[in-house]
Fold these 2 entries.
Entry 1:
Amino acid sequence: MRREHFTLDVTHIDWVETDGEPKKPMVSIDFTGPATMLRERLTGPGGDVLEASETDVALRLQGPLGDDTAGVVSVTNRITGEFILELNEDADDVLQFIQAARGYGDAADDEGRYAVEITLDGDSFVDYDKRTFLVYDDEGSLLRQHSLIPSGVEL
């Protein structure tokens, strides 16, 4: 699977800049490559689609934080550590999304701070409510101040 096969779209983050009504941020990831491989990666050993608790979402910076820093957004299988998917994104855009998710979680009584939908050629395959989004610098160190980590979670 190539990163070019993925398209990421984000909604419900504009309210942060306008002090509007908080809405749960959502990221939609559409895959247009060979669907069989992504289906296999999103399926556990028992044949069931992985649950939200069995996946992790992270941003790995490709340089120091600042203007035009690129990053790689990844979804991994929490049990095996294997990458499910990766795609290139602007780090500032991802950090803005995390800020919206943090604000939504503070304002709403909701188990999930953001939603992830993965589609295959436009057809929904999985929907997750997530609470954690980890951010790593270009050397692999966790940037706690930029990450979305629920209170009480030890890493």
Entry 2:
Amino acid sequence: MITARRMAVVLTAALAVYFVLLAGRGIDLIASGTVVGVLMGVAILLLPVLGVILTFFEWRFGAQTEKLARLLDDDGEFPDTSALPRRPSGRVERDAADAYFAERKQELDEAPEDWRAWFKVAQAYDLAGDRKRGREAMRKAIELQLR
């Protein structure tokens, strides 16, 4: 069975191969000796560097999120969403996701400095399909847990 972690490793490995190939093209352009070639080669070499930095931050975010999930699970507080009704695609039905979010938001309003509440709200955002707000809430949970 392919887990999210295995898929991330496979995709990161493919990305690493791409970065190496891209860097090779940049070096070839620099070796051409022409002004345009050198400038384009330097610009192309910046792309793998930027890619490695962004990949590092994504892996760090994933590791921190996994750590918080483990802490919640160890305390018996990891939210169980298996009973929520789902569409044939596996996504939680919209009304159920909205109701679940309202419950988690209520918990957050009662304890705005609790990383556990932020984690649960992040999960609720994800269930509702709002990945951007979910990631923002998870960043807040990580920040609060690190304090």
